[in-house]
Amino acid sequence: MAVTEFLRVPDAMSGRQKKILLLLALASLTSAYVNTLFTQTVAFAADEFGVSESAQGIAAAIVRWGIIISLPLVALADRTGRRRVLVTMAWVAPIICALGAIAPNFAMLVATQAVGRPLGLTLEVLIMVVTIEEMPRNSRAYATGLLAVASGGGAGVAVAALPIADVGPTSWRYIYVLTLIWLIVAVTLVKHLPETHRFEERSHREVVDGHLDVGRLVTISSVVFLSNLFIATASIFQNRYLKDERDFSALLVAVFTIATSAPASIGLVIGGRIADVRGRRIVATSLVPIGALLLATSFAVAGPLMWTTAVAAGLVFGTAYPAMAVYRGELFPTSKRSLAGGVIMTSALIGGSIGLVAGGFIIEANDSYAPTMFLMALGPVLSSVIVWKRYPETAHLELEDINPGDQVRRDPRSDNQLST
């Protein structure tokens, strides 16, 4: 298949769908910046406040445990609508996170991010829900991949701002001030983002709510839990590893992060199309373990090989991501889709928290990063087995076919007619 074929949209999108996708891409910039902010700056804030690696791991875990704030918010989105809660998060998350700029100590910095970051995660969940509900059936994974590219842009802004931290011992605070630029996105969403058709249909019809399949929820939650044992640990400690073990400056850390993650954007687009055209399960189960082992290897080698393995890991993970992520919304009915996404996100954050705390202590005890990363990489390997054994194939199916309880809500018109 030619490269141009890989990049072609599987299902044509209507004008409404294209507009929504663009708005969600803007919202993804906000969400990604907010969710990346603490991860990228914690090593530099820790230097100012004089805290250890294990303390940083605990702090990162605490920030992740703030996810409990998200659960009532995503449940509210199932009752009152996706748009209202999504737009509110686009306003509140940047404002709360920006308060980190005036934190008088490490504890207060952690406290602001333990509130702000979960609000950004709530925004991320609702972006996924709107994407799943509005995109054509053969382009859901593709659209998910495109939005992940946008998220990479938001995270890239946080990374690109990292050299500011080298200006002085307190200059990392300016990176938190920059969070306020995303309020421009909030204004745009207020003016142009509509409610999803599926939620509106459900609201205007007196029907029994779709059943939440607990088995599916437990299965997906276990997969993201195991995956994030490794992914969160690697992402948090990579900057510290580069700074302490490889003597990288903040500028070189930023260059490394951008250079090794940028190729993932190619994988996100190609992986999304493959997942829509060929199927999700084969992509996810084959590539996730490879990506984990490559990323772990980047902590064990130096020089060009370190850069090469990190680039390869980003490309492989990027290709696998749309197939893995799209399941989080597809397997649940409209009336429970946001709540299920919140529970799954919570499981991911719990897994990441455990990985961070354990990883921090193991690194300090052994004074070595590589063994810790290879140990944690077992999580994604096990998760891929669960995907192969337990996940259904959802490519080419309408959401109402995947979730039979929603069929009573289905409009006899086509998706494209609904989207005009």
Describe the structure.
It contains 20 helices and no strands. It is mostly helical and 420 residues long. It has one domain: Growth Hormone, Chain: A (Up-down Bundle). The chain is globular and about 55 Å long. Mean pLDDT is 88; it is low at 409-420.
Features:
420 residues; Growth Hormone, Chain: A; 20 helices; 0% strand; globular
Short description:
The protein is mostly helical and 420 residues long.
Number of DSSP-assigned strands: 0
Structural class by helix and strand composition: mainly alpha
At CATH's second level, what is the architecture? Up-down Bundle
CATH topology: the name is Growth Hormone, Chain: A
Rg, rounded, reads 20 Å
Strand residue content: under 5%
Mean pLDDT: 88
Helix content: over 70%
Q: Specify the CATH homologous superfamily.
A: MFS general substrate transporter like domains
Q: What is the H-and-E element order?
A: HHHHHHHHHHHHHHHHHHHH
Number of domains: 1
Low-confidence stretches: 409-420
Biggest sheet details? none
Shape: globular
**What distance separates the N and C termini?**
31 Å
Q: What's the number of helices?
A: 20
> What is the CATH top level name?
Mainly Alpha
